[in-house]
Structure prediction request, 500 residues.
Amino acid sequence: MSSIDYFQLLKLAGPEAVLALAALAVLAVDLIWMREAPIRQRQGAGAFVSILGCLGAGLCALQMPGFGSFANGMLVIDPLTLLLKGALLVLTVFTVLLSVDRDFTEHVGEFFALILLATVGMMLLVSSEDLLMIFVSLELTSLSLYILTAFQKRSALSAEAALKYFLFGGMAAAFLLFGLSLLYGLSGSTHLGGIAEGLVGKENDPLLIVALAMTVIGFGFKIAVVPFHLWAPDTYQGAPLASAAFVASGSKVASFFVLAKVMMLGFAGVHGDAGWRHLIAGWAPLLAVLALLSMLLGNLVAIVQGNVRRLLAYSAIAHSGYALLGVMSNSGEGMASLVYYTVTYGLTTLGAFGVVALVEERTGSASLSSFAGLGRRSPILGLSMMVFMLSLAGIPPLAGFFGKFYLFVGAIRTGSPNIGLVWLVVVAIAMSAVSLYYYLQVLKQIYVTEESAATVDVTGETNIVTCCAVGALAVLVVLLGCFPNLLVGPVLAATGSAGL
Prediction:
């Protein structure tokens, strides 16, 4: 380690360093210069500094001096990780925009600083291939999200959601750390490539089976798959809207990417086979079971939800099941489809939460009935929500359709001697049809159900930032569906250069 040029390493970690400085700047601006200012001005100043930090981090990533693996995989810089960092910065910017004009806390500087610190953790997470760095980054992200979930102090639901999130997260971290420590003991390395080499010939070692199970449990919590999903509905319902949206978008993108890297690179020799009637022990059949349970429970339970927040939570569980198909594909194409799917899903769910935020702020509720007549009261918001719901359902020509199509094709092409993962794709298509029912229930309220006398307009001058953010997200979802190569092309090129 003595030969490492730490100044060069700092330059390579420039985007994260810029965001960390932006977090400190947000705190300084809010606590020193804006302490006595009205809450709206403090929010505007905090959002401005946060977005400037994200733009600075993005420019720093574009000026990266070189690619490669540094400090034994602690920091990996390649086109794919830079693309993921860019996607995370975009999701962070929209999360910040959705936080403006929200009246849930007086601690504005701390809120925006935690969003930026969570993004730092996610960016380090996607750019590491070392177990220690992965765990530290995951915990930095998780601790920031726990606090963000509890930020609505006046709400008992927020406190309950944060407590459940923290307790489940603590247990998951213990499982993950135990699994990673067993991997180190078996392979003698903390680098994913070194782990794969060290596990050669140990495929039937009982400790490897335990390590695999523990690792999957730890990551299963982060991506909210069944049966590690119990925290998600309460967190989505009780957390501040911006916090819930960030958990559902940026956190999912980073967690799925690092799960795929750990499985494809670290457990490369124990993939197994999840083909129909051709099961071979490994991580593929284990993930297949989780995907099947998540798709079934997530979609079926979402049908009976009367609260749109909880509906989106169970929808997210189902989408985690779909996304696991990309991991199980165990190929560059599978990784590309996973990146496209999680990024477009993140944009879509952010937009949906933005509409929910506006409705909940004016009606005091996120129940289905609160959306009654939204299409007539606010045509733009109604149209945007329709775009988000139909995209989540996988209706063309929206981004969600191509995302699912790309995932399913990659799963079908998985190298298996028989029909591969076709059986799981069939289940996914059937559950997508089920999901259309509850998404249409939301649209029925927006366009068919008559609004009640208690329903008020959800537009206004105070909501202009959120309305613009929601509209921009809807346009992005349509563009990425009509012109998928805008994202797929760079992702495929980046995946190829990363050697996946």
Summary: The chain has a mean pLDDT of 86.
